[in-house]
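Re: Re: token formats

Sure, here are both.
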Amino acid sequence: MPVDFSEFSPVSKAAWLQQVDKDLKEKSLADFDWQPSPGLVVTPFVQADDFPTPPAPLQTVAIPWEICETVDTMDAEAANRQILEALEFGAEALELPLPAAADVAHLRQALGGVYLDFVGLHFAGPGVTHNPGAVLASLQRLATEQQLAPAQLRGSLAYDPVMQATLVDWRYLVDLLGFAKPAFPAFKLITIGSPDDAPEDAVAELVQLLHQGNFYLQKLTERGLAAADVAGVMQFSMTIGKSYFLEIAKIRAFKLLWLNVLKGWNAPLEYPHIAARFSPAAYTDDLYNNMVRATTMAMSAVLGGADRLTVLPYDAGREAQATYSQSFSRRIARNVQHLLKMESGLDQLADPAAGSYYIEQLTAQLGKLVWERFAQAH
């Protein structure tokens, strides 16, 4: 039955603030303001009166995220064991850092027993940086061996030549995109992200992501590619820190900001593909506290609307301190996401943070400040 609230009189923000001032006595509400990034000041009290019209959700259809696990592929045999374990216990995507000399034989061994069209395949590392075309060619050959068309595969390359090289061969990148458009239409070929060791400054991070994405649009459209085609092969890798509400708002704000960039290029307005990863700086030597922190950080990524999430094992970088095996810590990392999907049903909600006045205002404030700084640079 619908709930009838008619017996409750509406309370204005002014009335609430009057009561807050009374309860705070000698303090001011402004004493509780929060400054998560330079120039961004957040008040703890937001109310319906702050919005002329109720905020609308960013999307109306739920888009489930991929549960991703990173697998070191230096030893192909060991990588294969971890990959099969990850898939058996519920991973939906694999991040595979490749050594510089990775070839089809190495990949064949690492991916032995894997149905390539069943899982997201996300390649990173020196092998991608040095020769992304060779990675796609090897993957094409493996797909053929499984009697699959490469177009049936989905995944990405962590390829960002602007950040990874001093000199960008734009002709090579144009050719790569031309080859991959019909052959690998479900692959993201350019990954734009901030370094893991970057300071946790949400405003600076989003400005950098916008700048880099816009730069690729500029350089590749100058060489004859359509803006829609360039935007379609880009993904953004965003670090998730321990500031719960800010990280939710950061992803939501970036989605809206990227639409503004696309509008300037007269490209179709489609939200960016966002791969979320954890900031290693968020973890401490308290391993069990990291387990709890992993849950709240994962919730931030999911509630913000990430398309892919890699949860860092609670003992990452501190394996020698752990009581249990790395297999256990990886399983806990996967299970964090399973709880969010299978127990909480967050994959069934479209923009679950929509309508939260606090998060909506934080999203708007962050977006406004980032856009102002981005516009100043352009």
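Second one below.
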Amino acid sequence: MKGLNVARTFSFARGICFLVAPIFLVTLIAARPALSAPINYGNFSGATVDYLQVTEDANSAGDNPPLFGPPTVSGDSIDFDPVGFNAATQNGGTDLTDGNLTFMIKAKTGHAITNLTIAEAGDVTLGGFGSDTTFASVATRIFLDVVEVDGQPISVVSNNNLSIPFSPSGGTFGLGTDGGGGPIYSASWNGTAAININNFLTSKGVPFVFGATKVNINLDNTLLAISQPGTSALIAKKNANGVVITVNTPEPATAVLALLGLAGLAATRRR
């Protein structure tokens, strides 16, 4: 990851840093178009769903895919083990790494996508003696589009207000507050977002019997590191279970029972 060499002087307390960081991060992202060709890993088959057109790209200057790396599928989980997906800086520099991951989840016959879980993990190290001006942060926004329900295309319903909550420290780490001012702070971080697709469809007024059968996912993953002179900051997604997406679907027998129940209810209403 190339440092951005942006000179920054902060005299904020930790809380102000945390307010400024997202704004600063969004500004950097908006200013940088993707500079490299995306990697399309293709399609992957799980137990009850398929992951289609799994593609990653890098949206930050000096970064090239792969960042997430090629996926593996076990059961209904798709797993990425990032290598080199990090942001690192020292002696007053700034580094932003922005990776983008997109794919479609398609339910196999007799199944529906009822729940989606996205988990990420990594570590952070801050070194030297300084304040919260030396810090690192992780953020992941989730863009979700349901495009098919019960095997039938629908007008797309979207949720663009999803994100992964990270711990500890909300995914933002300061050398002053978290590291006691120095000489070193090191920790592992993780986060999980659990999304109930059926509840989402209900909230949007979309009727269904089983649930969504095609869902598009777009993950915008950002790592940010800023250091003051004489200090360093490094934050990385881990190379083991770094990003795991798991889908839960009803068993065919459950789906049949639900359909029979609805048919019985309809017959009762007609009588």
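The first strand starts at residue 39 and ends at 45. The radius of gyration is 21 Å.
- S.
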